Amino acid sequence: MLRIGVLRFVALPHSSSSSSSSSLLFNPISPKSLPPPPVIRTKLVSRSRTMAYTASSGSSSNLLFRQLFEKESSTYTYLLADVSHPDKPALLIDPVDKTVDRDISLVKELGLKLIYAMNTHVHADHVTGTGLIKTKLPGVKSVISKASKSKADLLIEAGDKIYFGDLFLEVRATPGHTLGCLTYVTGDGPDQPQPRMAFTGDALLIRGCGRTDFQGGSSHQLYNSVHSQIFTLPKDTFIYPAHDYKGFTVSTVGEEMLYNPRLTKDEEGFKSIMENLKLSYPKMIDIAVPANMVCGLQDLSERPAESVAK
Ligand SMILES: N[C@@H](CCC(=O)N[C@@H](CSS)C(=O)NCC(=O)O)C(=O)O
């Protein structure tokens, strides 16, 4: 396997163009080669702060976590930040265009520095907020999978690690709802959040899963993605999906392995369920898919995306 890209946030000038600046924008530095951040960590204080910020997640002395909701498309957006790092670097997963102002206000109120606006996949039911965020906060980088064949500042793939401060997300490929679906999982390590947290996009929903009837969807692929990439995580790993239509907010791997009415079946049973969902096409699909192929910015320049160091 190729060496995983280590995307390390460093304080650099904001720039949104020029391919020659790519090495300035993402600095592939091993965390071990950097001096420790100049911050005195008082475990009790930082832990209690995190607890106050954290909604239904596990503990980490460094992680600030928020789950946000966009009600028209029933989409969850997630805000994560390393609040022990002096810059408080943050990222958003699956922001929606309609709630970008809310999300940016929250980022500012909490004193965070947003560095990545990430997509789990090319959504069909709403326009991503990642492009709009870039126009409002020009230093932010849009992120999506290379397999999605979309345009973004950063095209990522399985095995990459997305660093924000000393915390990171591991990238797992979970195709099946769309070809380019990714699941982001918090890091495995002593200073990373415990239990781990998996941001599954539409691959795995709570007691459900993403449909497989368009955008390169495949029930065979989705079944294998969930079983090989998500159900192999520790059972206490939290599941945070991109949507919920039933009022759920969080689940765990163990809970879904026991109670997911689709994915507890064998593959043939799963395929049969997926073939008979009889869902109507998302109302926004004809607008959302082309817009999301350019991370929500129809006029994004033609410059090539930065490649991730391997
Ligand atoms: N009614 C909504 C779309 C609902 C829908 O199709 N949701 C997708 C995820 S967004 S493409 C899905 O995979 N649902 C699975 C399920 O079992 O509900 C609209 O018109 O936007």
From TrEMBL:
Protein localization: Mitochondrion
Record protein name field: persulfide dioxygenase
Keyword line: Acetylation, Dioxygenase, Iron, Metal-binding, Mitochondrion, Oxidoreductase, Transit peptide
Species lineage: Eukaryota, Viridiplantae, Streptophyta, Embryophyta, Tracheophyta
Keyword Metal-binding: yes
Entries under InterPro entries matching the protein: Metallo-B-lactamas, Mito_Persulfide_Diox, POD-like_MBL-fold, RibonucZ/Hydroxyglut_hydro
Enzyme class: oxidoreductase
Cofactor: Fe(2+)
Domain spans labelled Metallo-beta-lactamase: 74-243
Gene Ontology, cellular component aspect: mitochondrion
A Pfam family the protein falls into: Lactamase_B
CDD domains cross-referenced by the UniProt entry: POD-like_MBL-fold
Stated family: Belongs to the metallo-beta-lactamase superfamily. Glyoxalase II family.
Alphabetized GO MF terms: metal ion binding; sulfur dioxygenase activity
Reactions the enzyme catalyzes: S-sulfanylglutathione + O2 + H2O = sulfite + glutathione + 2 H(+)
Keyword Metal-binding in annotation: yes
Domain of life: Eukaryota
Chief location of this protein within or outside the cell: mitochondrion
The organism of origin for this protein: Pyrus ussuriensis x Pyrus communis
Gene3D superfamilies per record: Ribonuclease Z/Hydroxyacylglutathione hydrolase-like
